Amino acid sequence: MRYLLGIDVGTSGTKTALFDECGNTIKTSTHEYELFQPQVGWAEQNPENWWTACVKGIREVIEKSKIDPLDIKGIGISGQMHGLVLIDKEYKVIRNSIIWCDQRTEKECTQITDTIGKEKLIRITGNPALTGFTLSKLLWVRNNEPDNYKRIYKVLLPKDYIRFKLTGVFAAEVSDASGTQMLDINTRNWSEELLDDLRIDKNILPDVYESVVVSGCVIEKASKETKLAVNTPVVGGAGDQAAGAIGNGIVREGLISTVIGTSGVVFAATDTPRFDSKGRVHTLCHAVPNKWHIMGVTQGAGLSLNWFKRTFCAKEILESKEAGINIYDLLTEKASQSKPGSNGIIYLPYLMGERTPHIDPNVKGAFLGISLINNHNDFVRSILEGVGFSLKNCLDIIENMKVNIEEIRVSGGGAESSIWRQILSDIFNYELTTVKASEGPALGVAILAGVGAGIYNSVEEACDKIVKGNEKVMPNANLIEVYSKVYEVYNSAYPKIKDI
Known about the structure:
The protein is α+β, with helices and mostly antiparallel strands.
């Protein structure tokens, strides 16, 4: 049997997963690490902690599965996007990585927009200047830590640092690189025009590959640490969102995924790059060769229900423990006892600002329309509906960009609730297909590794073989008018509360 290894360098920990060539999970291992916040709004991690977690995870899955490392035919790496890793000439890390959720770079975003122009920036990179992207972080280091900037030999993304440790090769791939805001997503290579305008030396950036291309092989030093076989191929891999989409089979235009995790994502594969002139959704290169993707993001999806549980549900937590049932199953069951429209309550899920459709890091969340008739169940249902409306905002923009929609697949922790799935289907007014994608990005990059190793002919062929949809959720025709009216009220709320 041939095996494939997927590594996902996340924010809270690194997941290592071993699969057979049919996509069956053999063994997984997750190791966590710290996130540092030196100041309010800052977020950093030590890249060496990622590598330590990788080494432990790889050794664990090899030892526990009792397979011969020579039977691992390819390795794929995924990871948190947009992080900045700086390497000096001695191949040492210069400073902690500034990661995706860091918000220190507002001045640099203004600098980028003023230098390039918003329209041109969207045309080249698919996005307006955003605090989370790598480019603004690099300029922040230049503006605030000039000595560190002078020492830079290479700029890497988080997963590409792990590639370097495994292979000794400096490389990037198109899906993750397009999230740096330095890649021309039309040519799928670094934008010399943008780099020249911002006075950034192109030589500090690694070569860019397509995601299925073998970028290097495991070197002896890494082999000794991890127990992987020397010369095991490592493919380009993918950023976490593109990798997760492949794990869901979103590899052709017409297929859309909706993921209800901590954040919520609506993700569409496209045959050509499509742009929203207002920059409300991200347009990036997909990990599938010659494909792109559009992505709308709701910052506080599952996060909203988790926050409500922690803050207002002491009684329900106790009740769920006594009954031996999952607290989220209990809460969504209570939500089903409220009416569609939550008896007038509208919830705005802006607990961490918002990205789509409002690029507004400062907007706050709200419950609106509360009256004496409302009870706890109405509040819970309003959260499920509010997240659904926010995801529909993402879907509406994608539809307006003339993207063909044939099938919407739903996954993530929130989607495990049949009640939340039904609410989402009713709000979208689309049939939804559930997909079990527990290994997510790790499976996605293992599929890419299988293509690079020649086990599969294409990403599309591999997904047809491995990714299977489960039950269908049909929208309730009787609720179209109800949710249409509530959605109208929801959409009218942001302009009224955004300055509070």
